[in-house]
Write a structure and sequence with these properties.
The chain contains 11 helices and 11 strands. A 7-stranded mixed sheet has the order 1-2-3-4-6-8-11, sandwiched between helices. Strands 5-7-9-10 form a 4-stranded mixed sheet. Strand 2 and strand 3 form a beta hairpin. InterPro entries: ClpP/crotonase-like_dom_sf (IPR029045), Enoyl-CoA_hydra/iso (IPR001753), Enoyl-CoA_hydra_C (IPR014748), Mitochondrial_ECH-domain (IPR052377).
Length: 276
């Protein structure tokens, strides 16, 4: 498949808010609304959710990179859209609940996507934008990237970003971000566990794509089983987690590629994957 970028349009949008490019088994999704700080507007969330649904059904896509245009990775929810509903009869309650439900649908779609997703972060990722990074399986940050959950500073605790942060960071690190609402520099974000790697500014995308290509080279049987199992067992108690993981691993052992991989090790040769 060509690596040329293509638009993933949204009905009624003047220009695509998300673009895609393909290089072999690696698909890159790019937030393309830099003039609005790549905020997670209704259109942006719809475009990303739609793109992820298409990717989930595309077995030729083996890994996904989530990047952004401009100096801001994502500033979180579109505050202008939110404030526009303050005058509703219910003061915006129904709209707020709906938009947050859409956001949760997007974040869980990333977690539940069969393919691994790697965030490539340059610039700032704040509030739900930080949540977007935390929802990805891996994250690479340029050294000038910064992260923040600043809701507490404007009278609005970052409750939904809290869900993703608390599942990635140690409790006290997550609470520090949520309670202080202060900027976290890239290297500190790596230490906290929000990102995996910090690279020179401008190199986040190429590094994330290189990681994605390495994942794409592997059999997709253990990759897809493993990603799903990782998040499932995280919600279980220790005994249930081991019982569940044992069942999934036994299923994995029955796969053709597991037989091939073990045979290749014993024969001291490179394996030949068939993704089954």
């Amino acid at each position: 498949m060509s690596a040329e970028p293509s638009a993933h349009p949204v009905a009624g949008a003047a220009a695509p808010v998300v673009t895609t490019s393909r290089d072999g088994g690696v698909l890159t999704l790019t937030l393309a609304r830099p003039e609005a700080r790549n905020s997670l507007s209704e259109a942006m969330m719809a475009a990303l959710t739609s793109a992820l649904a298409a990717i989930a059904a595309d077995t030729a896509v083996r890994a996904v990179v989530l990047a952004a245009e401009g100096p801001v990775y994502s500033a979180g929810h579109d505050l202008k859209e939110i404030q526009a509903h303050r005058g509703d009869a219910d003061r915006g309650r129904a709209y707020f609940e709906d938009v947050l439900k859409r956001c949760a649908t997007l974040m869980t779609a990333i977690v539940r996507l069969p393919q691994p997703v790697i965030a490539a972060v340059e610039g700032m990722a704040t509030a739900a934008g930080c949540q977007l990074v935390a929802s990805c399986d891996l994250a690479v940050a340029g050294e000038k990237a910064r992260f923040c959950t600043p809701g507490v500073n404007i009278g609005l605790f970052c409750h939904t970003p809290m869900v993703a942060l608390s599942r990635n960071l140690a409790r006290k690190h997550a609470m520090e971000m949520l309670l202080l609402g202060e900027w976290v520099e890239a290297e500190e974000a790596r230490r906290m566990g929000l990102v995996n790697r910090v690279v020179p500014a401008g190199d986040a995308l190429s590094t994330a794509q290189a990681l994605a290509r390495r994942i794409a080279e592997k059999s997709q049987v253990p990759v897809k089983l493993g990603k799903a199992a990782f998040y499932t067992q995280m919600e279980m108690g220790l005994d249930d987690a081991y019982a569940y993981a044992s069942r999934v691993m036994a299923e994995n052992m029955l796969a053709r590629d597991a037989d091939e991989g073990i045979s290749a090790v014993l024969a001291k040769r490179a394996p030949s994957w068939e993704d089954r």
